[in-house]
Amino acid sequence: xxxxxxxxxxxxxxxxxxDFIKTTQEDLRDHIYDHPVPAIGxxxxxxxxxxxxxxxxxxxxxxxxxxxxxxxxxx
Length: 75
Hints:
Elements: H1 3-23, E1 32-34, E2 42-44, H2 45-68
Antiparallel strand pairs: 1-2
């Protein structure tokens, strides 16, 4: 998948997640899902929302760190 395609897919997926969070009448604490990493274990939907935002922030900061390196190619 190309970079632009990956960004497009991410933004589409994030928009669906945001719409669900804004419109759901469900109690997010009542929906439990196992994390694919067994050591993390089960999380409820509220915890998943927090996890998603923190995970995205982590990767964003990693990207910014790489781009701030003086050896990173200038466009």
